């Protein structure tokens, strides 16, 4: 091998080594950046949750049930329904679509009262809606607002339940006071909303909808008009 060929071989080897080193550094930098992005996301999520949990717990006027659930119905109703829902939850929307009118009939007839535990584990849309629901409860119109939201439920994680939408939905059921509008805009009940989620978790609730009749959980096949009526009738006889 000539001297020139040896020099070319050395230069080529050095170039290959330098290229490998550059790739290695790029991979390291890329991994660090990716980890930083994930960390920032986690920190952002934690900070947001911390902010909500650190807000004062302002209780709506009708949040007099267990764990400050929102109570709807006559105080002396013989049977109590505990209903854990998320306004954004598709299964909750299906329950309201199939059985909501039966629930309303049982409330109106005085057969049941309801403890509504409005959860918000599906993201910002759920939290905004839950805060607005609490604001409606404070004005004494929770059930009307609740039913209006489920009647026009957006698809999950599509940016639904925006502040202005919630204010308009409130107006459609007579919620036009400055107190309601300001509470929706300001997140007045964000601390309460976080408390409801925490209390539900400590009570062992792991999914929505969860329905209890006089403290006894209903199975999925009981979440029908006939199944609910049968459970309420049985509880009334106990």
Fold blueprint:
Blueprint: H1 3-54, E1 70-72, E2 79-86, H2 90-108, E3 112-119, H3 124-138, H4 142-151, H5 163-172, H6 178-186, H7 190-202, E4 210-213, E5 216-217, H8 225-237
Parallel strand pairs: 2-3
Antiparallel strand pairs: 1-3, 2-4, 4-5
Helix pairs in contact: 1-7, 3-4, 3-5, 3-6, 3-7, 5-6
Explain what you see.
It is globular, with a radius of gyration of 27 Å. The protein has helices spanning 3-54, 90-108, 124-138, 142-151, 163-172, 178-186, 190-202, 225-237; strands spanning 70-72, 79-86, 112-119, 210-213, 216-217. The longest helix has 52 residues, at 3-54. The chain is an alpha+beta fold and 238 residues long. A five-stranded mixed sheet has the order 1-3-2-4-5. Helix 3 (124-138) runs parallel beside helix 5 and helix 3 runs antiparallel to helix 6 (178-186). The termini are far apart. Helix 2 (90-108) links the parallel strand 2 (79-86) and strand 3 (112-119). The chain contains eight helices and five strands; from the N terminus they run H-E-E-H-E-H-H-H-H-H-E-E-H. 59% of the residues lie in helices and 11% in strands.
What is the terminal separation in angstroms?
102 Å
- Contiguous low-pLDDT stretches (5 residues minimum) are 29-51
Note the run of SSEs as H and E. HEEHEHHHHHEEH
Report strand order across the widest sheet: 1-3-2-4-5
Q: Give the helix proportion (percent range).
A: 55-70%
Q: Looking at the structure, what is the overall shape?
A: globular
Q: Note the beta-strand portion.
A: 5-15%
Average of the residue pLDDT scores: 86
Q: Radius of gyration in whole Å, from Cα?
A: 27 Å
| Total beta-strand segments | 5
Backbone structural class:
alpha+beta
* Biggest β-sheet description: 5 strands, mixed
Total helices: the number is: 8
């Amino acid at each position: 091998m000539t001297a020139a060929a040896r020099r070319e071989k050395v230069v080529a080897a050095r170039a290959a080594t330098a290229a490998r080193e550059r790739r290695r550094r790029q991979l390291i930098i890329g991994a660090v950046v990716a980890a930083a992005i994930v960390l920032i996301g986690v920190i952002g999520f934690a900070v947001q949750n911390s902010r909500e949990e650190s807000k004062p717990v302002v209780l709506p006027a009708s949040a007099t049930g267990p764990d400050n659930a929102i109570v709807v119905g006559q105080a002396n109703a013989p049977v109590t329904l505990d209903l854990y829902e998320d306004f954004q939850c598709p299964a909750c929307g299906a329950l309201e679509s199939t059985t909501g009118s039966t629930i309303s009939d049982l409330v109106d007839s005085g057969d049941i009262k309801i403890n509504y535990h409005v959860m918000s584990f599906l993201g910002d849309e759920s939290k905004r809606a839950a805060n607005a629901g609490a604001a409606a409860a404070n004005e004494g119109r929770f059930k009307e607002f609740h039913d209006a939201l489920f009647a026009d439920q957006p698809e999950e994680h599509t940016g639904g339940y925006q502040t202005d939408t919630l204010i308009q939905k409130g107006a459609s059921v007579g919620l036009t006071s400055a107190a309601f509008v300001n509470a929706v805009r300001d997140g007045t009940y964000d601390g309460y909303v976080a408390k409801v989620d925490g209390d539900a978790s400590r009570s062992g609730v792991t999914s929505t909808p969860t329905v209890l009749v006089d403290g006894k959980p209903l199975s999925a096949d009981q979440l029908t008009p006939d199944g609910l009526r049968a459970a309420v009738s049985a509880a009334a006889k106990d």
